[in-house]
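Reviewer 2 asked us to include a model.

Predict the structure of this chain.
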Amino acid sequence: MTSPHDLLAAVARGVDPGPFALVRREGADHLELFTGTVRPVERLADVPLPDGPPGPRTLALVPYRQVTERGFDCVDDGTPLECLEIAGHARLPLADALAALPDAPVATADAGFDIADAEYADIVARVLAEEIGRGEGANFVIHRTLRAAVQGSPLVAALAALRRLLLRERGAYWTFVVHTGTRILVGASPERHVSVDDGLVMMNPISGTFRHGGTADRAALLRFLTDPKEIDELYMVLDEELKMMARVAERGGQVVGPYLKEMSHLAHTEYLLAGRGRLDVRDVLRETMFAPTVTGSPMENACRVIARHETTGRRYYAGVLALLGRDDAGRQTLDAPILIRTAEISPAGELRVPVGATLVRHSTPEGEVAETHAKAAGVLAALGLRPDAPDPGPGPVERLADDPEVRAALAARNAPLARFWLDQRPTGAVALPGLTGRRALIVDGEDTFTGMLAHQLRALGLAVELTPWHRAADDGYDLVVAGPGPGDPRAVDEPKMAALRGLLAGRLAAAAPTLAVCLSHQLLAGLLGLPLRRRDAPYQGLQRDVTVFGTSRRVGFYSTFTPVADADRVATPYGPVELSRDPVDHAVHALRGPGFAGVQFHPESVLSRDGLAVLADLLGHLLSVPPGRAPADAHPATAGSAHGPADRG
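Predicted model (structure tokens):
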């Protein structure tokens, strides 16, 4: 059944029309109807994408449990990866869709969250204290689910909800109904996870939630745009998605924005990332499972934390809808929104609306409880479970983003960020003389910041390889970079800590050039005899001006532990070591000795405005590189171009 009118008429008669999806993509004046057959597959690599004429091939419903393909933990609820193999594709003008979709209230009963507000607040408090407070990561998303029973036909209810979403919700990336025969998904997702078109990979990190209830309040919005918690949330997910772009784009991602995404009940802040890549789109999906905005960072440990604190599986929440196809040249295409602001309805009428809150060091349990209610509001209003937003009426809707002060507040967010990720530059523009042909190995400590670090070191001129901590082999590299990761560096017998400590000890004994970042900096400091201290307040996603070997640098920290020292120079079995210390608490931000160096901050982070300059200085120390052009990381802030990715050469 490929005619939208025939399909909707069949539903109105109480006939199941078979599997289909109705989708309105952002800015479109029509809906797309996809019809075909549904079959489950085990892995993303099994999602069908046959050759043939241009057009869509498969709509995949990717559940959260698919993250196990990357070896990450989850509460495995057995939710299937289902594929709608598209046999029919038609368009329906938006006005015709609104006329044809059922215009009726959705009756529900027994609505309530599966986790009560007080219990959810307790979980938030535990995550803040036991996870962020103990160095397990910078942010984590914990979900809860509103459940209810739909009265009457679930499919009619879903289509009626779709009509209300089309009328009342704005700013959604996809607004959709997907019916597989075993489940119905209906929602308005604000967030693109990843797309691929003409070889251009794009991601869209969104974070920060301004609750306005449909009424513009300029003063309140300006306060939101300067709120440190909201700013930090967006910066942290920006860093995390840059890590993903480092895996799927040849030179990493260029940052464009930030922008204000306005919806009927909420507004969010967002960036756009773009980079060129050649991977199969199914590999792009696998390498980017799943968005930090619905999981946390660093990603692998975020999944462990989620599995520790969530007692039920996430089903499709935090997964994606993925539309795979071919373009006119036969190249693969992908468009994948994140499955948030989405209701799942069973054939028996069981309704689930999962929502989550992003927990950072500034979070409060009460604030995160309120955020889950706000995020559910749009879908719940469409289903008749909450008051609807005011009808905007005819004519253009007032856009808060058009206000000059709002634009200025958004632009100001880029001023302290690393220009390396915001600007285009010609190949070789920041390369240092003397590095061509020299090899570096980066050892990943379970934080894929190492992918970003690899792009920066390549831009500086090194040939770089990347390996996980449990496979590291010191094999004649000119430089080994021991990378960051979560966990307590004081854990003597923990396998990762023992492996990284052994690697560093071997490099020190051989007097082989070594750079240690964050966690590995702490381990290096311990080998040098410096004590380690857990901070009273975590430095997760914190930007600071610190002195690094006599020069003031603006850098980003993601750490809970730090080495400390009482002097600027110490004698060690490996020679004299120079320290850059905090003048108040004596935390060691950086150290260097004969053939080795360590930094507590992340020079590769978007928060490290001067990170590239720090790396250039350290390479000069470690590899006796003659001074060259200073990396231009501190020139005036201008938004990146939206026309293509930066060439980071």
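Residues 392-396, 634-649 have pLDDT under 50 and may be disordered. The chain has two domains: 4-389+407-412, 430-623. We have added this to the supplementary material.
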